[in-house]
Amino acid sequence: MARHMFFGGNTPNGFYGRFGDILFLEEAKKIIYLKGSSGSGKSTLMRKVAATFEEKGIEVDYIHCSNNVTDLDGICIREKGICMVDATAPHVCDPSVPVAIDEIFNLADFIDRNYVQEHAGELLKLQVQKKPYYHKAYGYLNAACTIYKNNIYMNHQALNQVKLKAAIEAEVKPFYLEALSAKPGLNRSFFASAVSPQGMVSYLDSLVKGMTIVALKGEGGMGMEQMLLAIRDMANSRGYYTESCLCTLNTEKLDHLLIPERKLAYVTLNEYHTMEQPIDRVIDFTEFCDMDLLMQYNEEMQYNKKIFDELLQKSMNMMDAQKVVHDKIEKIYIASMDFEGLDQAFYTILDIIQNSIQD
């Protein structure tokens, strides 16, 4: 079984990562850090390792790159305590427990250095061309977020806190029947979706398969995040492991909450968050709002939404323009790769993983 997600995202404040949450150190048996340039085979290598576990019926988390969703930033086999991560910029990672748990593989060892050096001038020129696109992309995304916050403010003004608190109390009530845990449950934070060169991409469906799905219907500022935080705190206090899916526009905010041991998922559904999985129950947060007040704000909110959508699209256009340049850089490195040596690296890594599982 495969699950798909992002541990790094393009946000209004730049690239933001939660790579320390991929696999908690106390669960880890082997963490492999891959170093190397774009086009050096990191994604290919991780997919091959992941496939060997999937073929055995073991669940694999595929961690996609928000700067090109067809590439991988990592894989994780939590059941076995194994993960592999791309440890190069912008998500630089370094070992905590070298050799005993952590291993570094430098894929630059399989690059024809003479070939790359012959193209050094071209590579430098492309790097210079690439840099401004993300600067502009984050600028547009920050502007979009600023506009979006105005609508959040107006929704919050219309929110009836008494009704919201009553709904939250009803939702967490089942947890009161369970005793507090001596050891709180762990929480793992990541993104179910990303603002990317390929547009808005979501892997929410892959994360909630086989779960009871409670849909939180509403817009930002209507209290969904308050409910999700309350449920998460209650679940963790009872010892449950949780997964928090963060908002790309505000990394302090939850979009969705998963409680795997209960096979329970709370998902925020609106124009920007959709899914195909069947929904078991809906909590409509507009019922906690003063709709007359929201109608008074409607014209302004529709205007804000139009500007937000335009700025968001402009941001993704800049990311796509960057990817065009990035692909040219990658093409040079791909042409320099020793793929036979990379195949041998796959078997070496597989042996290391198998030995760590058996220990």
How does this model look, in words?
The chain has helices at 42-54, 113-118, 120-158, 161-172, 204-207, 224-237, 291-335, 339-358; strands at 2-6, 8-11, 14-17, 30-35, 60-65, 68-77, 82-86, 102-106, 187-190, 193-196, 199-202, 212-217, 242-246, 254-259, 264-269, 281-284. It is α/β, with parallel strands linked by helices. The strands form four sheets. It has a six-stranded mixed β-sheet. A hairpin with a 2-residue loop joins β10 and β11 (199-202). α3 runs antiparallel to α7 (291-335). The radius of gyration is 22 Å and the shape is flat. The two termini are 25 Å apart. The relative contact order is 0.18.
The Rg value, from CA coordinates, equals: 22 Å
Low-pLDDT residue spans: none
Number of helices: 8
Class by SSE composition? alpha/beta
Q: Give the total of beta strands.
A: 16
Beta-strand content bin:
15-25%
Mean pLDDT: 93
The main β sheet shows up as:
6 strands, mixed
**What spatial order of strands do you see in the largest sheet?**
1-5-6-7-4-8
Tell me the series of helices and strands, N- to C-terminal. Answer: EEEEHEEEEHHHEEEHEHEEEEHH
Overall, the morphology is flat
In which range does the helix fraction lie?
40-55%
Tell me the distance between the termini: 25 Å
